Amino acid sequence: MHKRNRLFVSIALVYGLLGGLIAITRLIDPGLLPGNVPRAHGHIMLLGFILMMVYGIALHVLPRFGGFPLYSERMADWQLYLANAGLPLMVAGWLGWRDSLVLAGGVLSYGAIVLFGLNMILTVVGRKK
Amino acid sequence: MSTAAPQPTAGGPAEARLGAEAAMAQMGMTFSRDNRCFIVAAQVYLMLAGLGLPINGSLLSDSASRPAFLHLFTLGFLLMMIYGIGGHMLPRFTGNPIREGAWPWLQMGLVHAGAASFVAGYFAGWHGLVVAGAILAWLSLAMFAARVWPVLWGSPGGTR
Ligand code: HEM
Prior knowledge:
The structure holds two protein chains of two kinds. Chain A is mainly alpha-helical. Chain A has helices at about 5-30, 35-65, 75-95, 100-125. Chain B has six helices and no strands. Chain B has helices spanning about 15-25, 35-50, 50-55, 65-95, 105-125, 125-155. The longest helix of chain B has 29 residues, at about 65-95. Classes of the chains: A mainly alpha, B mainly alpha. Bound molecules: protoporphyrin IX containing FE. Protoporphyrin IX containing FE (HEM) sits at the interface of chains A and B.
């Protein structure tokens, strides 16, 4: 399994644990963490845990199931960078009440989503570079 | 399940396919018992989460039961699908074994107790039960992470 894909899965696990801890903290002492904690938790779990897990597994299996090599390793590498730059910015924005950070993080996270989507489409239809 | 190793058949393609399928089962392509249970449980939680549709007219209602139905879906369905499929596929992707024995069953006990307490706590309006469920569910995720980490980063996993 490619190191980048193992990183995706590992980072997913870290986000899952972090998102769970944030939610538990909120339940035990609602005033301890500032900002919109449920929103941060929800996105850490969905974008951080579930989506990164899907990224790591899909980048590994879809080329194999599709019968063609991954269209672009570089796109997948940039997807890793963008996804992991975007989500922390969004979370910082929610916890710090800074909409500009949420917006910047959202744009980066969306960049990762688009890179993944295009890379997967071009892979399964067997498009050569 | 038969324990005798299947032999290649001298018959036609149908027999050959059956033989190959049986051989794959012997090589461990099919789910282990724990992962099979995670997948089955995930479907049960999905059906429970979906009850929000006929009851509230929405998967996510605006009532106090919103986090309960939401987490039946996320903790019950999504997380357990990840446990079952991840626990099955990741060792095959990296070639590293996953910790078996009592660990997956402990993980399963924790996630069931966690999800059930969390959800029941919201329905009953009992905060202590919600917190207990949250901690148990988190512990199950920590256990899954501890089982999967060596699968990802153990020695032969460095190959592509
Ligand atoms: C350790 C496990 C978990 C705990 C303790 C936990 C706890 C919580 C709590 C306390 C809330 C706030 C509920 C409220 O509105 O009062 C919440 C919301 C939420 N959770 Fe979780 N959760 C867990 C796992 C998950 C998972 C695995 C996912 C997704 C895959 C998830 C997705 C969400 C979402 C989307 C929200 C709604 C956020 C919003 O309203 O903006 N949670 N969770």
